[in-house]
Amino acid sequence: MKLVQKLSESKKTLFSIEILPPLKGKSIQSIYDGIDPLMEFKPAFVDVTYHREEYIYKKRDGGYLEKVSIRKRPGTVGICAAIMNKYDVEAVPHIICGGFTKEETENALIDLQFLGIDNVLALRGDSIKTEPSFVPEPGGHHYALDLVTQINQMNKGKYMDEEMKDAAPTNFCIGIAGYPEKHFEAPNLISDLKYLKAKVDAGAEYIVTQMFFDNKKYFEFVDVCKQNGINVPIIPGLKIFSSKKQLTALPKIFHIDIPQPFYEELEKCKDDKQIKEVGIKWCIEQSKELLKANVPCLHYYTMGTSEATRAVAKAVF
User: Fold this and answer.
1) Is 18 a catalytic residue?
2) What letter does residue 68 receive in the DSSP assignment?
3) C or N terminus of the chain, fewer CB within 10 Å?
């Protein structure tokens, strides 16, 4: 079922999670172990992230360096199929620009359609560590807007081979990312919203936000989206603080602010156990306020663990 249909039919705020594929060589059981404790809250969908290839240089005989491609977390498509089969819940794979040609994207979407996966989250993706900025694959998309356009064209039965006749249209519900504190590459929020609206106009049907720790930023983001003609459901993305190192890592990686009252509470913590307790408490209060505002869904970035998310969900749902 399309997520927009789920959202429109539900009379209450839904619950959903995002998970990481296991590292290469690890069992899918770790995925099940992370989802099982959360099934009592009936997640409306499970997002599965996609991690593109990276490159390392290995020293070979003779002293020369060989560029080797590695993929640390493969399996997004297979994991989505397994989740849907095991739990009878919608799985949403991330589809990214980085590392894919347009033809490879088309083939991946065909595979997803064959598996009965109706929902995708279309993202540009991050640059790899060896590149200072995002570099598209030769023959690939540079922007998420182009990716959304390609998916929507396939929904209309238009494939890359223009000579194809009577091609079966796909039926994907397309989600995109939104940034209440703006994307770090955007010069300002208004310019960021211009590109967000372009993606909605190109066929995106819902938005999932980057994590935030100040609900005011989310509410302001929703308001300014509406003012700019963006009227699709906007799902707040929430993250539970769990370690001291996240005090510096999360703002650096995700370009987000930590509210001063929250920061002061986290700073008082002596160890990660206390950090997690404060993080859970803060996320519960965030969730309750958002729930009271009748947001369409509360989406939790679990990072593959369920303990903290379960504590929050138990207090909120």
Assistant:
1) yes
2) E
3) N
Q: Tens of pLDDT along 96-132?
A: 998 889 999 999 999 999 999 999 999 998 767 667 7
Q: Among the CATH numbers 3.20.20.220, 3.40.190.10, 3.40.190.100, 2.40.10.220, which is that of 3-316? A: 3.20.20.220
- Integer angstrom CA distances of residue 99 from 23, 121, 217: 18, 16, 32
Q: What angle do CA 92, 96, 101 make, to 5 degrees?
A: 130
Reported as a pLDDT band with limits 50, 70 and 90, residue 261 is very high
Specify the pLDDT at position 55.
58
Residue ranges of domains in the chain: 3-316
Helices assigned H by DSSP within the chain? 3-9, 29-35, 76-87, 102-114, 144-155, 189-201, 215-227, 246-254, 260-267, 272-292, 307-316
Give the lowest-confidence range in 18-32, 88-102, 118-132, 168-182. 118-132
Q: DSSP assignment of 203-230, as one string?
A: T--EEEEEE-S-HHHHHHHHHHHHHTT-
Q: Convert the pLDDT of each residue in 154-174 to its tens digit.
A: 999 999 988 888 889 999 999
**CA distance between the termini of the chain:** 23
Question: Structure tokens of 173?
Answer: 């519900």
Pairing mode, strands 297-301 and 234-239: parallel
Exposure pattern of 26-53 as b/e (b: 16+ CB <10 Å)? eeeebbeebbeebeebebbbbbbbbbbe
pLDDT at 17 over 70: yes
Q: Which candidate in 9, 18, 40, 104 is catalytic?
A: 18
List the structure tokens of 118. Answer: 């109706």
If DSSP codes are grouped into helix, strand and coil, which group holds residue 176? Answer: strand
